[in-house]
Specification:
326 residues; mainly alpha; two-stranded parallel sheet; 5 strands; globular; binds adenosine-5'-tetraphosphate
């Protein structure tokens, strides 16, 4: 049986990109194997963040997980920082990753290229080591991620091969699974950039009001010309809206292109907004009910207990293999 693991960092307010690239698919994993979904709060500390924002974002993610249809009876939902084995495994595994490899990571280069060395914390550099520990701690076989995390999974696989070559079959080799439609939703104001919660220009936030969402989509940057077709390079704005539409409707991109081929930009955008709201409004309602009930706190507590039970088995296996007496 597959062991599936995924998570979201509480670095900011969740966006439509997080919904399409991650949340929307989580409930389907429940039919495919044993699922662990966590809130990657330790990862959120790798760049400066206000403590009250971090707390609020973490609670929101728990509620969004439940609103997206994750059933705590089927899925282990937990906070990374509630399971100390993540940090313990990281303390061991970081010795099997090399500086040269970490320096090549695109995410590190993207996030830190404009920063001064004296402002770059060790955590952001060593991010892939903690991420590998998150995955390997649960013997995960399948890791659903966005396109830009694939490189980190490849590094995790290198680490597994290196470690197992030295100590025997101790770690489980994971594979990345990238969302087919909507693997990269772009900013509405600059469709050449990813829609990101930590760089919130041109984002649609999952908590935005209906009128705000509609307004953002209606004023999304489009491209010259008036035809609607998919061409990421020459028509990035239109292509992004087509991707959003097909992801929300759960249809192939080619069907969306066919549907809109004789539309004008204005009518096209209106239908994209309708498709987004048709799904987001009930989702927002479920989120609010869960937040107000406070039930997510119990879910996190029970989830952490379950996660610890699995994690300690793997940690013990690794400790024994490397020669730690415990
Ligand atoms: N624009 C996006 N399009 C498609 N999928 C996306 N995801 C994020 N943005 C998009 C997916 O959401 C999940 C959350 O990942 P994360 O929080 O661990 O980190 P991320 O990918 O780096 O997301 P952000 O929003 O861009 O966060 P920051 O700004 O903090 O780096 C992942 O499955 C991701 O693919």
């Amino acid at each position: 049986m597959e062991r599936i693991l995924s998570g979201i960092k509480p670095t900011g307010k969740l966006t439509l990109g997080n919904y399409i690239g991650a949340l929307k698919h989580f409930k389907d994993f429940q039919e495919q194997g044993e699922v662990y979904i966590f809130i990657a709060d330790l990862h959120a500390l790798t760049l400066p963040i206000d403590p009250s924002e971090l707390r609020e974002n973490s609670k929101d993610i728990a509620c969004f997980y439940l609103a997206s249809g994750l059933d705590p009876k089927k899925t282990t939902i937990f906070l990374q920082s509630d399971v100390s084995m993540h940090a313990e495994l990281n303390a061991i595994l970081q010795n099997y990753l090399y500086i040269g490899e970490l320096k090549r990571m695109t995410q590190f280069k993207d996030k830190c290229s404009k920063m001064n060395d004296s402002a770059i914390g060790l955590g952001i550099f060593a991010y892939p080591s903690l991420m590998a520990s998150d995955i390997l701690l649960y013997d995960a076989t399948k890791v659903p991620v966005g396109e830009d995390q694939v490189q980190h999974i490849e590094l995790t696989r290198d680490l597994v091969n290196r470690f197992n070559h030295r100590y025997g079959e101790i770690l489980t080799l994971p594979k990345a699974e990238v969302t087919k439609v909507g693997k990269r939703i772009m900013s509405l104001t600059d469709p050449t950039k990813k829609m990101s919660k930590s760089d919130p220009k041109g984002d649609i936030f999952l908590k935005d009001e209906e009128s705000v969402i509609r307004k953002k989509i209606m004023s999304a940057k489009t491209d010259s010309g008036s035809e609607i077709y998919f061409d990421q390079e020459n028509k990035p704005g239109i292509s992004n809206l087509l991707t959003i539409y097909s992801a929300m409707k759960g249809i192939d991109l080619s069907l969306a292109v066919e549907h809109f081929k004789n539309y004008r930009y204005g009518d096209f955008k209106k239908e994209v907004a309708d498709a987004v709201l048709e799904e987001l409004l009930p989702f927002q309602k479920r989120y609010l009910e869960i937040k107000e009930s406070g039930m997510y706190l119990e879910v996190l507590k029970a989830g952490a207990e379950k996660a610890r039970t699995t994690a300690q088995v793997v940690l013990k296996r690794v400790k024994d293999a490397v020669g730690l007496l415990s």
